[in-house]
Write a structure and sequence with these properties.
The complex is a heterotrimer.
Chain A: H1 10-27, E1 35-41, H2 42-50, E2 61-68, H3 76-86, E3 91-95, H4 109-114, E4 119-121, H5 125-134, E5 139-146, H6 151-163, E6 169-175, H7 178-187, E7 195-199, H8 200-206, H9 212-216, E8 222-225, H10 229-244, E9 250-252, H11 264-273, E10 274-276, E11 279-282, E12 286-289, E13 293-295, H12 304-307, H13 323-327, H14 359-367
Parallel strand pairs in A: 1-2, 1-7, 3-4, 3-5, 5-6, 7-8, 8-9
Antiparallel strand pairs in A: 10-13, 11-12
Helix pairs in contact in A: 1-10, 2-14, 6-11
Chain B: E1 5-14, E2 19-24, E3 27-32, E4 50-54, E5 57-61, H1 64-96
Antiparallel strand pairs in B: 1-2, 1-4, 2-3, 4-5
Chain C: H1 33-44, H2 63-67, E1 72-80, E2 86-87, E3 90-91, H3 92-105, E4 109-121, H4 126-143, E5 146-155, E6 163-173, E7 189-192, H5 198-206, E8 212-213, H6 224-233, E9 239-242, H7 247-259, E10 262-266, H8 274-283, E11 296-300, H9 305-313, E12 322-328, E13 335-338, E14 344-346
Helix pairs in contact in C: 3-4, 6-9
Classes of the chains: A alpha/beta, B alpha+beta, C alpha+beta.
C-alpha cells in the first residue's frame, strides 16, 4: 500500500532503533529513571502494541499510554443514556463498532441489542444518514463519539441532514477535545512526562498551533506523529533529540498528512455545528472544563439529547480502579490490583480495559499478564 | 483514536453531493470530499489524488513532496546507522587484529 | 468406487409431484404430502445419484466396506447460520458441506457420508432452497461424499433467520495415523495452505452495512483431497485444524495450550491478499482473527515441512501454502508473533466478535 508500506520498512526501523539507543546511551549519565514519553492517541497505543515497539526500545525510554481513546474515557452514565435512547421503540441507534461493548452501569449496547433494541453498527455517520433516508418512519440516532478527527464527519453529516430537511435523524453528541485534557494533565503536580508524541489525525484537523502552550508554558517537546511504526520511531527520536539539547518545541513528523494550520473546511463545519460544553466527564479522569462539545442552536433539531429526554445520571467508576494513575503514567497497568483478576476485556471494570486501545486492554491482549509484556 | 488510512480517489460518485470513490488496496468506498476540495474547483481534479480517509470522509490530501522529504530524512538516518555499524565493526576488527 | 452403504432397490413408480408454490409455508413442515413434495422435488432430486438413500429413516452402512478405509470411525456435527445466505465465493449450502467434510478430514479421516437437517423460516422462496440444495449436491460431489439422510423443519416467521443447516458427517480414520491437538513438539513447523482471512472479509462485506466494494471472495472449499496429499507428503504430521471462527489466532492458541508448547509466528510470512489487508486497515480489524472456510493450519516435523509445502502448493486449494511459524519450548501455552520489525507481541484469543473500529 502506498504511504503505508514505506513506513513499515524493517531496515529503517532497525536504523531508528539504533539511533534511539545511541541517544539513550548519551542521556543515561546522571539519570535514575527512564524518560517517559506519552503517546496521547489511542491509535498510537494500538500501533505500539501491534508492532511490538516497546520491546525494541532501550531501558531508558518508555512509552506512557495517554488518554486519547474516546471509547475508554466515555463515562458509564453516557453509555446508560445511549442504552435508554436505543431502547425506545421508534429508534434505530447507530454506532461505530468500538462503542458496542463499552459497559454502562447496567448494560452495553451489545446487550441492549440482544435484549431487543435496534442497534446497528455503521462505518460512517453518512451510512446512518442513509439509513434515516431509507426508514422515514423511524428515528435514526447516531452515536457521535471521538476527538477532533471525527467531529468534522458528524458535523458535515448534520449539515447534510439540515440541507435535506430531514426530521428523523439526530446525533447523540459525545465528542471531546484533547487540548483542555492535555492542559489538565500538565497542571497536575509531579506529572512525570518528559515529552509527547502528538496525535496525528487530530492534528490534520486542528493543525499544530494549539499545542504551543505545551512547549511554551510547560517546557515539554511534542512531535505530531503518523501511525505507522516508522512514524512512531522517528517521532520518538525527534522528541529525544529535543530532550538531549534541552529544547521544547512543537515539531511535525507527519507533514505528509498534517498541514500546519489544519483543515479549514473541517474546522468551519465543526465551529458551525458545535460549541464547547462548560464541562465534560472523562472516565478515569473526572470532569474537565471545556473538554466536550454540544450542538449549536441552529442545529438543535438534530440534538438527540434534546429530542429524547435522556436520564443523564452520573455513575462513579469502581473505587478500586487505578485508571487515572495509569492514564497519567504514575503506575503501570499490572500495578492495579484489579488488572487481569476482576478487570479483564471480557468484564472490564475500568476505562482502560474497555477498548483495545486502552492501555490495560492492550497489555492484557498483547502483553499478557502482570509485567509479562513482551 | 482516529483510525485513518491512505486511499486514492479513482472516480467522482456524485459531484453535487460532493462524493468520490476512494480505492484502498482494491477495496472501494464512496467518501465525502468536502474537506479536501478547493472551493470552486471541479471534483474531477481530485481523481488520482491520495487522501487520508476517516469514517467515510477524505480528511486530508496526502502531500507527496512532504512524504518524500520524510523518507529522505529517514534514508539519511539509515545510511548514518549503516556507516556507524561499519565503523564499529571496523574498530572491533582493528582491536582483534594480532600485532 | 463402491460406497459403503446400501443403495436402494429400484423404486416403485414415483408419486413425486413438482413443487408449485413459490414460497415455503408451515404446511411444508406438517408431515403431509406438501412436505414430501418439498423433500422429493427440492432435495432428493438434487442429491440423487449413486448412493442416494433409500426412503428409510436412516442410512445404513456396511461395516466391512467402511473398515477397508481405516480402523476408526470419525463422527462430527456442525450448525451453519450465515447472513447473507449467498455471498461471493459460496453460500450456506456449500459452507455446510465443506465445514463438515473439513472437520472430518483434519482428523485424518476419509469423509464418507453426511446428513443434513434444515430449519426453514416460512416465507423462504423455494427457488432459494433449490439453489442451496444444488450447491450442497455439487460440493458433496466435488468432495466425494454422499448426502445420505436428512430432515427439514419449517418454523414461523421470525423464529429463525431464513435458513439454518446442520450437517453431520462420518468418516474413517486411516489406520496408523495419529493426529491431534496435543501432539505438537518444540521444533515442529506451523503451516497453512494459503491466503488468510478471505471468508471473514467476504462475509462482513457481503452484509452491505459497511458500504465497501471489494472483489474478495470466500475461500470456502472441501479440503479432503488437499489433506490426502499433505498426509502422503508428511506422514509424521502432528495435527491439523481448519481455521474457521476466531481465525488462525484461535487455532494456534488452542494448539499451544493443548500441547503445552509455545508457538512463534512470523508476521512477514503470513500469506494475505492485498485487498484483505486493505479491508482490515479501513475497518481496524486484525486479519489473524478473520474466519477462513478453506484453510487449515497444520503442524509437521521440521524435516517434513518442505515436502508438506510442496504437496500443498501443487494442489488447487494450496497455492499460497507457507510456513508461518514454529513450535517452541518457551512460554508454554503462549503464542508470540515476531512483527515485521523484529519486535514481538503476544497473540491471544479474542474475547468476543471482532468489531470494526474507528479508533
Amino acid at each position: 500500500m502506498r504511504f503505508v508500506d514505506e513506513f513499515r520498512d524493517p531496515a529503517l526501523a532497525s536504523a531508528l532503533v539504533k539511533e534511539i539507543g545511541a541517544i539513550a546511551a548519551r542521556l543515561e549519565r546522571g539519570r535514575d529513571k527512564p524518560f517517559a514519553i506519552m503517546e496521547v492517541c489511542g491509535g498510537h497505543t494500538h500501533a505500539i502494541f501491534r508492532y511490538g515497539l516497546e520491546g525494541l526500545l532501550p531501558d531508558l525510554v518508555e512509552f506512557v499510554h495517554g488518554p486519547g481513546c474516546p471509547v475508554c474515557v466515555l463515562p458509564m452514565g453516557r453509555v446508560d443514556d445511549c442504552v435508554a435512547i436505543a431502547e425506545r421503540p421508534e429508534v434505530i441507534f447507530t454506532t461505530f463498532g468500538d462503542a458496542m461493548r463499552v459497559p454502562g452501569s447496567k448494560k452495553s449496547l451489545l446487550q441492549a441489542k440482544a435484549d431487543g433494541a435496534d442497534v446497528r453498527m455503521v462505518y460512517s455517520p453518512l451510512d446512518a444518514l442513509a439509513l434515516a433516508r431509507r426508514n422515514p418512519e423511524r428515528q435514526v440516532v447516531f452515536f457521535g463519539l471521538g476527538f477532533e478527527t471525527t467531529m468534522p464527519s458528524t458535523a458535515l453529516t448534520v449539515q447534510r441532514a439540515l440541507r435535506e430537511g430531514m426530521t428523523n435523524f439526530s446525533l447523540f453528541c459525545n465528542h471531546i477535545t484533547i487540548i483542555p485534557t492535555l492542559r489538565a494533565l500538565l497542571e497536575q503536580e509531579d506529572f512525570g512526562i518528559d515529552g509527547f508524541i502528538g496525535p496525528g489525525h487530530v492534528s490534520m484537523v486542528i493543525g499544530t498551533a494549539p499545542y504551543r502552550f505545551i512547549a511554551e508554558e510547560f517546557h515539554r517537546p511534542l512531535v505530531v506523529a503518523g501511525f505507522e511504526p516508522i512514524d512512531l520511531l522517528q517521532s520518538l527520536l525527534m522528541v529525544l533529540r529535543q530532550i538531549e539539547v534541552g529544547d521544547a518545541r512543537i515539531e511535525n513528523q507527519y507533514a505528509r498528512v498534517v498541514p500546519e494550520h489544519g483543515n479549514p473546511a473541517a474546522l468551519k463545519a465543526v465551529c458551525e455545528v458545535y460549541e464547547p460544553r462548560e464541562t465534560f466527564e472523562w472516565r478515569g479522569l473526572g470532569s474537565i472544563a471545556g473538554s466536550g462539545v454540544r450542538l449549536t442552536a441552529p442545529y438543535a433539531a438534530f440534538d438527540a439529547e434534546k429530542k429524547f429526554a435522556v436520564p443523564d445520571v452520573k455513575v462513579a467508576d469502581p473505587s478500586s480502579c487505578r485508571c487515572g494513575e495509569v492514564l497519567t503514567g504514575a503506575v503501570k497497568p499490572w500495578a492495579c490490583p484489579e488488572f487481569g483478576t476482576s478487570c479483564t476485556p471480557e468484564t472490564p471494570l475500568g476505562a482502560l480495559m474497555v477498548s483495545s486501545e486502552g492501555s490495560c486492554a492492550a497489555y492484557y491482549q498483547y502483553g499478557g499478564m502482570r509485567g509479562e509484556a513482551a | 483514536m482516529c483510525l485513518g488510512i491512505p486511499g486514492q480517489i479513482v472516480a467522482v460518485a456524485d459531484a453535487e453531493a460532493m462524493l468520490c470513490v476512494v480505492d484502498v488496496s482494491g477495496v472501494r468506498r464512496t467518501v465525502d470530499v468536502v474537506c479536501v476540495t478547493e472551493p470552486g474547483a471541479p471534483l474531477e481534479d481530485l481523481v488520482g489524488a491520495w487522501v487520508l480517509v476517516h469514517v467515510g470522509f477524505a480528511m486530508s490530501r496526502i502531500d507527496e513532496e512532504e512524504a518524500s522529504a520524510t523518507l529522505k530524512v529517514l534514508a539519511e538516518i539509515g545510511e548514518a546507522a549503516a556507516e556507524m555499524e561499519a565503523l564499529t565493526q571496523g574498530s572491533v576488527e582493528l582491536l582483534s587484529t594480532p600485532r | 468406487m463402491t460406497l459403503p452403504f446400501t443403495t436402494p432397490a429400484a423404486a416403485a413408480p414415483s408419486r413425486r409431484r413438482p413443487m408449485t408454490q413459490k414460497t415455503v409455508t408451515l404446511a411444508h413442515g406438517g408431515g403431509g404430502s406438501a412436505m414430501r413434495d418439498l423433500i422429493d422435488d427440492v432435495f432428493l432430486s438434487a442429491f440423487s445419484g449413486e448412493g442416494r438413500a433409500a426412503p428409510e429413516d436412516q442410512a445404513r452402512f456396511d461395516l466391512a466396506a467402511l473398515m477397508a478405509h481405516g480402523d476408526r470411525l470419525a463422527f462430527t456435527t456442525d450448525g451453519f447460520v450465515v447472513d447473507p445466505l449467498f455471498f461471493p465465493g459460496g453460500d450456506i449450502g456449500k459452507l455446510a458441506v465443506c465445514g463438515t467434510v473439513n472437520d472430518l478430514a483434519v482428523g485424518g479421516a476419509k469423509p464418507v457420508a453426511l446428513s443434513c437437517a434444515l430449519i426453514i423460516e416460512e416465507g423462504l422462496e423455494v427457488e432459494t432452497l433449490r439453489r442451496v440444495a444444488a450447491s450442497m449436491a455439487a460440493t458433496a460431489q466435488a468432495a466425494g461424499v454422499a448426502i445420505v439422510t436428512g430432515d427439514t423443519k419449517v418454523v414461523a416467521r421470525g423464529a429463525c433467520d431464513k435458513l439454518f443447516i446442520t450437517t453431520t458427517g462420518i468418516g474413517v480414520v486411516r489406520a496408523g495415523l495419529e493426529v491431534g491437538i496435543t501432539r505438537a513438539r518444540p521444533g515442529d513447523k506451523v503451516i497453512v495452505n494459503g491466503l488468510l482471512g478471505d471468508h471473514g472479509a467476504a462475509i462482513l462485506n457481503a452484509r452491505g452495512d459497511l458500504a465497501l466494494e471489494t472483489t474478495i471472495e470466500s475461500d470456502c472449499a472441501p479440503l479432503n483431497g488437499l489433506i490426502d496429499a499433505l498426509i502422503a507428503a508428511a506422514p509424521g504430521i502432528r495435527m491439523m485444524r481448519d481455521a474457521t471462527r476466531g481465525g488462525i489466532a484461535a487455532v494456534v492458541n488452542e494448539l499451544a495450550e493443548a500441547s503445552a508448547v509455545g508457538v512463534r509466528l512470523d508476521e512477514l510470512s503470513l500469506p494475505m491478499r492485498p485487498e484483505v489487508m486493505g479491508f482490515c486497515e479501513i475497518l481496524g480489524l486484525d486479519p489473524l482473527y478473520l474466519a477462513n472456510e478453506g484453510k487449515i493450519l497444520a503442524v509437521v516435523p521440521a524435516e517434513e515441512a518442505d515436502a508438506a509445502i510442496a504437496a500443498l502448493a501443487a494442489h488447487p486449494f494450496g497455492r499460497g501454502a507457507a510456513v508461518i511459524g514454529e513450535v517452541t519450548s518457551a512460554r508454554p501455552g503462549r503464542v508470540v508473533m515476531r512483527t515485521r520489525f523484529g519486535g514481538e507481541r503476544i497473540v491471544d484469543m479474542l474475547v468476543g466478535d471482532q468489531l470494526p473500529r474507528i479508533c
